[in-house]
Design brief:
There is one protein chain. This protein is of the alpha+beta class and 308 residues long. It has three domains: 12-70 and 207-237, 2-Layer Sandwich (Pseudouridine synthase), CATH 3.30.2350; 73-202, 2-Layer Sandwich (Pseudouridine synthase); 242-305, Archaeosine Trna-guanine Transglycosylase, Chain: A, domain 4, CATH 2.30.130.10. Helices cover 21% and strands 34% of the residues. The protein contains eight helices and 19 strands. The protein has helices spanning 24-35, 66-69, 104-111, 135-140, 180-190, 216-224, 249-256, 265-272, and strands spanning 12-18, 40-42, 50-58, 73-81, 83-85, 94-97, 116-120, 129-130, 133-134, 150-161, 167-174, 195-205, 208-209, 214-215, 244-246, 261-262, 280-285, 288-296, 299-305. The strands form four sheets. Strands 1, 2, 3, 4, 7, 10, 11, 12, 13 and 14 form a ten-stranded mixed sheet that branches. A five-stranded mixed sheet has the order 15-17-18-19-16, covered by helices on one side. A hairpin with a 7-residue loop joins strand 2 and strand 3. Helix 1 (24-35) runs parallel beside helix 6. The radius of gyration is 22 Å and the shape is globular.
């Protein structure tokens, strides 16, 4: 008989507004303690110097984290001209300076080359793994790195303001794996300038948006007042793009036992029209998710079962 987990069996998502100078892991730990939850995880790390949307999964919601890792994101950030750092943000040591201060119109024009699917080399100070170790750990040890370019997608990047010649503000909508610091590095190079990220805020991760985000101290206060459920989002929040199928009590029981169910021909045709390459379907009873399943040969095979 397994050991009983400590804490409450609470499940759902928190759209956290991560504060400045707090690591993502620390933020998850505080949220988990606030809810006294048995289990917690997050989707998409934010650097300590970044603020904004950090989706945190509690309990059964951790089973849906992989579906949020590929979600599009939106960032709002400021570029400081004239100084380049080792990390391309405020934290790193200065590595180069320049008197070049690009005009806003020049920045707008240069950004056009970065829209769409592009090759981007991650910064040395990043979470990319090199021979099983994080690049930032190796970089801090002084190891020379030669990170490979990866294909990323930037849907849009636009100038939103400028306070004098030394900085410019930009908003970027992008796909997974896109680094703001790498964009700033490459944009500065294209403009013959030196720069770093002076401020960074994530405003969206898939369906999790800034307008619905709750601050950590507010969250902790709500939990203290016994109002924690007011800001807890459903387990299935990241699954909006996955077709859902209503199942009977009998089929729901089979799925929770890890057994597959047979679909009617009309169900197969309906689901086929909505499936993506993953062939994943969410089986539900009303608003309650029973299991995530893979559809194969007219059957639903459960891959993740949810225990409510």
């Amino acid at each position: 008989m397994g050991r009983r987990r400590k804490g409450e069996a609470i499940s759902g998502w928190i759209c956290l507004d991560k504060p400045l100078e707090l690591g993502s892991t620390q933020a998850v730990s505080r949220a988990r303690r606030a809810y006294n939850a048995q289990k917690a995880g997050h989707a998409g790390t934010l650097d300590p110097l970044a603020t904004g949307v950090l989706p945190i999964a509690l309990g059964e919601a951790t089973k849906t984290v992989p579906f949020l890792m590929d979600a599009d994101k939106t960032y709002r950030f400021s570029i400081a001209w004239g100084v380049e750092t080792a990390t391309f943000d405020r934290e790193g040591a200065v590595t180069a300076t320049s008197e070049v201060r690009p005009e806003v119109d020049a920045v707008r024009e240069a950004l056009k080359a970065f829209i769409g699917e592009i090759e981007q080399i991650p910064p040395n100070y990043s979470a990319v793994k090199v021979d099983g170790e994080r690049a930032y750990d190796l970089a801090r040890e002084g190891v020379e790195l030669d990170l490979k370019a990866r294909l990323v997608t930037i849907h849009d990047a636009r100038v939103t303001g400028s306070v004098g010649p030394d900085s410019v503000d930009i908003v970027m909508d992008c796909g997974k794996g896109t680094y703001v610091r790498a964009l700033v590095r490459d944009l500065a190079a294209a403009l013959g300038a030196k720069a770093h990220v002076s401020a960074l805020r994530r405003t969206r991760v898939g369906p999790f948006v800034e307008a619905n985000a709750v601050g950590l101290e507010v969250l902790e206060d709500l939990c203290y007042q016994g109002r924690a459920l007011e800001v807890l989002l459903p387990v299935e929040t990241p699954l909006d793009d996955i077709p859902a199928l209503a199942v009977t009590d009998e089929d729901a029981f089979r799925l929770t036992q890890g057994r597959s169910i047979v679909l009617l021909p009309r169900q197969v045709e309906t689901l086929k029209a909505r499936l993506n390459a993953s062939r994943i379907v969410s089986a539900r009873q009303g608003q309650r998710i029973i299991a995530l399943c893979e559809m194969r040969a007219g059957r639903l095979n459960p891959t993740r079962v949810f225990h409510h």
